[in-house]
Amino acid sequence: MRYPKAHADSSGSVPFALRGPKTVRTALAAVTALGVGLVPALMFVSPASAATSDFTITPTAAAVTEGSPFSLSIAKDPNITTGTYTITIGADATLNARQANLTSDIGALSTTTIDASTAGPWTVTLPTTQDSVYEWDETFVVEVKDSTVVPAVASNTQVLTINNDDAAPSYSLSASPNPVTESAGAKTIVTASLSAISGRDTEITLNTANGTATSSNDYTALSASAVTILAGSPSITKEIPIANDGVKDQLDTENFVVNGSASANVANTGVNATSATVSIVDAQTTPKLTLSGGGAQAEGHSASFTVTASVGSELPMSVNWNSADVTPATGRAKATSGDDFTYPASRTVTIATGQTTAPISIPLTADGVNELDEDYAIELASPVNAALGTPSKATGTITDTSSAPTLTIAPSAVAEGDSGKKWATFTATLSSKSGKTVTAEWATAASGTGYGKAVAGKDYMANSGRLVFAPGATTQTFAVEIIGDNVDEGTGETFNITTASPISENPVTLSPSGPTTITITDDDSAPSVSFDDAVEKEGNGPKAWLLPVKLSNPSDHPLVVGIVDNGTGSASATYSAATPGSGDYSLLTSTVTIQPEMMSGQAVVLVNGDEIYEPDETVSLKSSVTDAPSLALISGAADDPITVTLTNDDKAPDLEINSAKGKEGETVNVTGTLTGTSQSPLSLSVSFGGGSIKGSKAADVGDFTNPGTQVIPIPAGTPSGATIPVASIPLLEDKLDEPDETIVGTGTGLGGVGTVTDGVIVITGSAGGGEEPGGEEPGEAPKPTITAPASVNGTGPVSITGTVAANATVELWGAPVAGGELKWIANSKAGTTGSYSFSRSISQGMRFVTQSQEVNSDEKTVWVNQWASLTASSPSRGRVTVLVKTNPNASGRKVVVQRWTGPNTWTNILVSRANVNGAYTATTWAPRGLVALRAWVEGDADMGINTGWTGIVRPVIR
């Protein structure tokens, strides 16, 4: 076996191809491994001096069949007598791949050396190997070389040939996978295989031929595609890509053929074509047909549906369609074939080869009838070359294009009435008949806010309903309750009636475009103003009194009524220092606004209560309407005066006879302390007489000189607490030792006005000797008496009075109730009767003592009553704002505002504390109308301040 010279020259070695069965190849490999080491000796010719003619190699036969030996006769030139020569085997470099394998094709020489000293000739035997590989006839070279020369030089060469005796193999074609399923990237691999290993290259040309599969759609064709099975190789492969055409094929399995034609070095050369059939499995299942389209389409047009195949097909697909039963949607009817749409006689749809859709068109009939939109449906049936998919049914809607009737409401005005409710009937009318049931919903609604706008629940009862007009009907009636009242509302009030088509039902075109306005005509006259006389206690301080102002009937507008003084009352509106108890009232509001639909309002009159005894007085007021809008809305501005009687609630003054003591021989100056003030002067009658007090001994006529009945005049306005001289009573001296004796001063008011409270004058006795009970030591100054009120209202002056020795100097000492030592405040001088007085302004509780001639009076404590005022107003509907002011400043102390919730019940509505200014203001909820409020302010016992209440106020809450 030989390889090309070029290969040997470039690689420096000669590769050996081992062919044949495995056992043969194993044996050849072993021999080859040994032979490789011999190659250098075989391949290099020694440049020895021996010529190529020194030895002659003569084979018995230049070519033998493999397995037969070669017999060689070697002769030498007679002139060669010495030396050792080597017989070698080498490759014939000129024969390329047809060289014999020196290790596997040839055995060992019978001899490998020649001794030139012998005569020769020499016979050498060389066996050849019998194999089963089809191969070329192979050649090799036998040489004789002089071994004494390095490298050895060949002296002669002989080319020998081993003839092949094995038959050529056959070949076959196969494909895998087979069958193959079409898909992206799918392929089949065609294999060309030899029946046996060949020592020669085998070239096979492949061509494909369409069967039921076609190369344009199903696979990639081969055209004269040559493949070579190399010597020693059993087979060769070739890929053929398989296409996924995305179309349902006519056959589930299609095929094509791979044909081969081989070169001459195979056994089946004479029949050198063989083939393999490849099957392709279709990836697409049977197409599914679905139906879509329909939807809403106006009558007189055509509805469109589409039949869609899931995949295309190599065969035309067809399917029938028919109308199907349908349940109309709410508010729609069922269409009828022949009446509402045209139902063709032929209802078969075909999808052409290679296509996936086909249309269905259904003409819709325009019938000119106003009717409900109508539903219909079609469905597919009896598919050919396909199957039914989902959905195979589709629904369409025929929308009506005929005009709907319009709707009107009558009448547009209804009467009101004076009270209660009454039904007003309205008629709804369609402009024309309809071919379907017409449904409309009606409802009352406000036409706006403000004057002239009716209010649901007050002027009419909100209502709604549904009107159903059967096909052909044009009228329906409904009713709304109208509420009567006696409110003057001018020309009347309006509300709306709206109409609308209910959702999901056929629409109705409404006329007019907006709601229908209904007027409730008013039948009430304009109101007039009136008052009611009243009686009110004056009280001891200022308080607000609410003067009701009434209307004969309400108005829907606010009415402003002026209030003025009529000038005929006995009470005075102006304070005069010259007239005690004057300034009885003040008109705090000159106008009263009576809110819409209210029948009364309230003016605020400040009644200036006092502690002055006076007769009942009257306040006379009247209305005076000057507000232009109110003049137009009130039936006359008639004067209807009101008389308010302010009843006196103060007692006539009382003169309390001040108790006194005196020794026999002295004159006692008797005084009285006045409680209460009178607006008018009055006179009191006072008399004295002996009387026993709590078991004391009554003085008799011999113990004192009775001054007789004294008429004591009390000038108008004499302040309460004033000390009034009454009489001087000389006490008669006797020589008897006797106990204290008492004289009682009594009296009454002349004319039935005023009172006198008894007083006791004690004549100190001398029984038992020593110091008289309650008396002073001989020569000691008398103990001052002291009188002061227990409390005063708010900050202000305190009147402190008493008696001491006549013309004596009196000191006033004081200290806060809160604590501290008494400190000097002021001096005064008693009169000739021994009476003295001080006036001291205080803002907290004080302790007072007077001192004269170093003798102290008893201590008097005067507390301050917390004074507070309350005002209230209504800033908005259902809200009241209050303001509480205090004197003295009640900063930080609790303030409670209460509302009368009756009976006999006051409820706290605000609880907080006064601010740094001693005031408190807040706004809170209150029921509408007249309410009564009062406030309580916490006192401070440590500071000598009592808690205080305000007067009751009566604001009107809007």
Write the layout of secondary structure elements.
Elements: H1 5-11, H2 22-36, H3 39-43, E1 55-59, E2 63-65, E3 70-76, E4 84-90, E5 113-115, E6 122-126, E7 138-146, E8 153-163, E9 171-176, E10 180-181, E11 187-194, E12 202-210, E13 225-229, E14 235-241, E15 247-248, E16 253-262, E17 273-281, E18 288-293, E19 295-298, E20 302-309, E21 312-313, E22 317-324, E23 333-334, E24 348-351, E25 357-363, E26 374-384, E27 387-388, E28 393-399, E29 406-410, E30 413-415, E31 421-430, E32 438-446, E33 464-469, E34 475-483, E35 493-500, E36 509-510, E37 516-521, E38 529-530, E39 534-537, E40 542-551, E41 559-565, E42 585-587, E43 591-594, E44 600-608, E45 612-613, E46 617-623, H4 628-633, E47 642-647, E48 654-657, E49 660-663, E50 667-675, E51 677-678, E52 682-690, E53 697-698, E54 710-714, E55 723-730, E56 741-749, E57 755-757, E58 759-764, E59 791-793, E60 796-803, E61 809-816, E62 823-829, E63 835-842, E64 846-852, E65 855-856, E66 860-865, E67 867-873, E68 879-887, E69 894-900, E70 906-913, E71 919-925, E72 929-930, E73 933-937, E74 945-946, E75 948-949, E76 956-957
Parallel strand pairs: 2-8, 10-17, 15-21, 18-27, 19-28, 23-26, 29-36, 30-37, 39-47, 45-51, 48-57, 49-58, 53-56, 59-66, 66-74
Antiparallel strand pairs: 1-3, 3-6, 4-5, 4-7, 7-8, 9-11, 11-14, 12-13, 12-16, 16-17, 18-20, 20-25, 22-24, 22-26, 26-28, 29-31, 31-34, 32-33, 32-35, 35-37, 38-40, 40-44, 41-43, 41-46, 42-44, 46-47, 48-50, 50-55, 52-54, 52-56, 56-58, 60-63, 61-62, 61-64, 64-65, 64-66, 67-68, 68-71, 69-70, 69-73, ...
